[in-house]
Amino acid sequence: MLASRVRIRSLSVVFGAACAALGLWVGAAQAAPGAGYVVSTPTELSAACAGQNAETIQAVDPAVNGVYEAWIGCKGIGFARSLDGGGSFGAPVTLPGSVGQKGARSWDPAVTVAPDGKVYAAFMVSRAGQTYPVVDVSTDHGATFGVAGSITPPDGNNWGDRDFIAVGPDGTLYLTWDYGPSAAAVTFLCAPNGSCAFATGDVNAVLQKSTDGGRTWSAMSHVSPGYPDSGGDSAPVLVEPDGSIDVLYQGHTVTDVPTDNLTVARTYATRSTDGGASWSPPVAVGAGAGTMDNGEWWIDGSEALGPDGTLYATWDTQGASSDTGWLSYSRDHGASWSAPAQVTPDSSNAPHIMQVVAGPAGLAYVGWLSGADPRGYAQELRTFSTTRGWLSGPVQVSQAFGASSVWPGDTFGLSALSPTRLVLAWGSAVAPTAATDEIWAATVGVTLP
User: Fold this and answer.
1) Which of 146, 229, 330, 377 is surrounded by the fewest CB atoms within 10 Å?
2) What are the extents of the domains in the chain?
3) CA–CA gap between residue 20 and residue 42 (Å, rounded)
């Protein structure tokens, strides 16, 4: 892999000139080395949970040095916590709302921490012909959980998928999820590893909110315009200090309505200043970077908010035989976005699952889980400055490689406990258990120039 990286850098001048003509910011060519990293030895979190453990996601509570991990596993949705900043984790538990009904299944965890320290974990369930989010809550920093409530779909035999959850400064919970009135209308394209993307159907990004700790939920607000044929899905959400809501979603081009063929997609940003009652016109983020193929089976985008109000977005795009990760930022609440900066030094035809978290003002940390290396999946990280570009090349956080044939999940965890202390978690099928994933976590101390 080192040899291939050297070759990529040797071509940076030619590559930079070509991308400049396309209006792209080539971070690798403009790198300003200076950031350093101290990476801990990864800790395995899921050893006590037999079978597959994948698709982890994370939240932190700096007030108690807390790190909270949720994932698909432990015969439902697994959860583990650390109260020493990710140095060690307690034994995993199974979230109560994810088990207990014959024939039910659960997937797509999400987690957030409220201003009062309560930990909320959301996930999708399929029960009695309906698919919907359930929310569990912990009032003791993740030691124990109870079921807070669930969302009742307005349609029988509906379709639902990936949820995200965030909490506002007043404690209001905001939950986005993918919704369709009819499960029968949604068809899929499936990858060899068993994970699937959408081919047709009434796919829409929606938001609901709760003002009573997840017990009851508002009616749906349609984030992606054109319901029920909007083609929107995978919509991470965050809440600004003034209560404004920012959502990033994947918007497919929809043809042949009402069959709803879902073709190529772009990443869109939208904002609500009235609690989700209405949304700004969606803005395409990094339009010059290309599009997402409808065969993409992983969650495409993520977003983060810096202490100076800068919004950061990451996503990846596909060409005929390539996949490339990107970063863009906005200083006007998502109304306009910078030229996209290429995150991944390679554009190989392999998944690049992207995440971003804000650092100090003007800085962001970007992580990606990628199968680009022929040895398998690896967890990578680098640092970006809005004024200097990339402050380092990639650093590999995972010490081992995960089997490319085993699905690692659509997401991984990346959070900041302080401006220069990060925690990452990911799924990886490494020896001697290469047939199934386990969940791993590591801390990263960052030295900035």
Assistant:
1) 146
2) 35-447
3) 38
Total-model pTM? 0.91
CA distance 406 to 374: 14
Look at residue 64 and give its three-state secondary structure. helix
Q: Which residues contact 410 (CB under 8 A, 6 or more apart)?
A: 55, 108, 162, 195, 297, 298, 299, 353
Whether 449 contacts 94, CB under 8 Å: no
Question: What are 202-256's pLDDT values in tens digits?
Answer: 899 999 999 999 999 999 999 999 999 999 999 999 999 999 999 999 988 888 8
Q: Phi/psi at 302 (nearest 5 deg)?
A: -150, 165
64's tokens:
């108690």
* Angle ∠(419,289,329) on CA atoms, nearest 5: 30
Could you say which DSSP state residue 230 is in? Answer: -
Do the beta carbons of residue 207 and residue 220 sit within 8 Å? yes
Q: How far apart are CA 234 and CA 249, in angstroms?
A: 6
Output the CA–CA distances (angstroms, integers) from residue 265 to 89, 98, 248, 316, in the order listed.
38, 31, 13, 11
C-alpha–C-alpha distance, residues 242 and 412, integer Å? 28
Tens of pLDDT, residue by residue over 117-152, are 999 999 999 998 899 999 999 999 999 999 999 999
Q: Give the orientation angle of helix 12-21 with respect to helix 2-10, to 10 degrees.
A: 60
Fold classified for 35-447: Neuraminidase (2.120.10)
Q: Which strand (E) or helix (H) includes residue 319? A: strand 311-319
Q: How many beta carbons lie within 10 A of that of residue 448, not counting itself?
A: 15
**3-state secondary structure at position 19:** helix
